[in-house]
Amino acid sequence: MNSGGIDWTAAGLWLAVVASGFYHGANPGMGWPLAVSAGLMKKRARALVTALGPLTIGHLLATLLMILPFGLLVALVQWRREAQISASLLVIGFGVFRLAKRRHPRVLARVRSTQLGLWSFAVAIAHGAGLMLVPIYLGLCQIDDLDKGHKAAGILGSSDLRMAILVSIVHSVSMIACGGFLAWLVYRYLGLRFVSRSWFNLDAPWAFSLITVGVISLSISLTDGP
Amino acid sequence: MSMRPDPTFHASPKLAMEAAPEDFAYTLLLSPDFSKPDALAVIDVKPGSSTFSQIVHTVTMPYKGDEFHHFGWNACSSALSPLTGHAFLERRYLIIPGLRSSRIYVVDTKPDPTKAKIHKIIEPEQVFKKTGYSRPHTVHCGPEGVYISTLGGGGKEGTEGPPGIFIMDCETFDILGRWEIDRGPQQLHYDFWWNLPRDYMVSSEWALPPQFENGIVPEDLLSNKYGHRLHFWDLRGRRNVQTIDLGANHQMALEVRPAHDPVREYGFVGVVVDTTNLEGSIWTWWREGGKFHIEKTATIPPEPASKEQLPALLQGFGAVPPLVTDIDLSMDDRFLYVACWGTGEMRQYDVTNPQKPTLTGSVRIGGIARHTPHPNGKAYAGGPQMVEISRDGKRVYWTNSLYSTWDDQFYPDGVAGAEVMANANPSGGLGLATDYWVDLPDGYRAHQIRLEGGDCSTDSFCYSSA
């Protein structure tokens, strides 16, 4: 499918799912330093690996929570374009909010170090990590749709829900692959100095990423006739 | 808000030790008769500098009668906590509470310490209104902002309700409110510190304001009415989980010094005086099987003295109590420094085995009966008091005043302000640096010292050095 001169292909979208996973995983704010800390505190590399489990689950659930409602929206009612536009606006709006209010969500400081899954979930929600995937996900649903031809309303579009789960899993696995790799490198080879050296303030770039994803998705929805 | 973490934030104590040494020391100056405003002195401590050991800048406060005591940074290495994920604060502002006035000053140390200036003043009414506490004391930078302990509750005397800890925003410096959700049996307060990844806090007890503001109350001391308990808290849950009584005769449990490496679940606390024998003592607490335990691990005996050598307060005892008023633990958790303000001694203990502190060094200076002068020949009034260790553990700085009214009772001849430094041998041993002597302005005494880029009683860490 070709719209507005942009090659909005399935391969590109899947690449975006994986790339955003790497991006989230590399961000220290999404938890890889926690895995390093866990390894050092328990003095065992196994503790580092163990910490990656709940971090993945938390991120996965946060992503699902964000994209599933949109999955239901496009599956139950044929408001695909409206869903796409509103998702784009939501992502842009959240990006602007993050840019304007760059203060630290203090509530995260109340989560315990033993509640890694909850922490990962909360941090992904607070930063809009799952939200960033919604427009990408909707794009994938659309392609899936076109491939199969329009579905009968009775099927309830269960393929959209399967797609939501698939997108969340692929994204979260990419996230933890990248974050886990970094945690391992720091723990085993680079040393703790790398924690502060590699920690860039991603607040503004992160907000711009959200806005960019939203704007691209919005422009496609708008140029894409009803 | 910067793009990179502040270079003075370190993931582990080991990295903090390896960083560049301090060029400046910040010292609080207080006017003991409240005739002048208190001040912050910025001292050049860079070896080889033409102004070495001199005050190069002074920030004088606009009010009188604050009585400065302890202070701390708006942010430190705890900002690298992997849980808060927000490492872009700056170690820039010194938070200076007035212990007597309950006023809090925020001093900006950037762009240059020699140009430090007042950034914000929080009036006492704000503290009272938002927290119900008074007499702010210890300042620590933590994951939820700046934590400040108080010695007084509400009301003029500070006796309406127990004192506690409140939290201040580390960027806007707005007071956010009380920290405790469940204080358990805690009714007195003094110092506190924590182990961030292990998620616990330890707090100690001095006394309520009527027991210290007008001087030590001998009857209260002899009837064991000063603080003698240690409280252990669930840090994130904000609940008291355990209180340990050291025994009523162990009067005034003051500074709390947990091991810096978060993997070590132990720490130390100093007890000023045992009322049964005038001993000072060091206690080691540790966590095992989810419970906290504590044991007296070192004692320091009193020194006999004749009546003429003693102030009225001590004449009945015929001896000088060591008065352990401050302790400080080196960044590698190896050496514990113990200030004996009464006998005029700074002790260095090797605490590699925390249950068995071994005396490895000692410096004599000042003292109630001894009056040991500095090796440079100058008289040193008072005794070693607030002590601060450089991050690399090679230099130990200290001042000589305890608290305005108490100084006058123990040292009736006055405690002219002094700040000295000792060089510490990496394998043990301590000797006063003959070239370090800070000339403090007349009429001022000196209390806590903070070192540029962090020191051993400021920074807390979330990663083990291992």
> CATH topology of chain B, which one?
Methylamine Dehydrogenase, Chain H
Biggest sheet character of chain A:
2 strands, antiparallel
Oligomer: heterodimer
Strand tally of chain B: 30
Q: Supply the CATH class of chain B.
A: Mainly Beta
Radius of gyration of chain A: 18 Å
Shape of chain B: globular
CA gyration radius of chain B, whole angstroms: 20 Å
Structure description:
The complex is a heterodimer of chains A (226) and B (466). Chain A has 226 residues and is an all-alpha fold. In chain A, strands 1-2 form a two-stranded antiparallel sheet. Chain A has one domain (2-223). In chain A, strand 1 and strand 2 form a beta hairpin. Mean pLDDT of chain A is 84; it is low at 1-6 and 152-156. Chain A has helices at 10-26, 32-42, 45-76, 80-100, 116-126, 134-148, 158-190, 193-197, 203-223, and strands at 2-3, 6-7. By secondary structure, chain B is mainly beta. Chain B has a single domain (13-451), classed as Methylamine Dehydrogenase, Chain H, CATH 2.130.10.10. Chain B has four helices and 30 strands. Chain B has a four-stranded antiparallel sheet, with no helix packed on it. In chain B, a hairpin with a 5-residue loop joins strand 28 and strand 29 (430-438). The radius of gyration of chain B is 20 Å and the shape is globular. The two termini of chain B are 31 Å apart. At the A-B interface, helix 2 and helix 8 of A face loops of B.
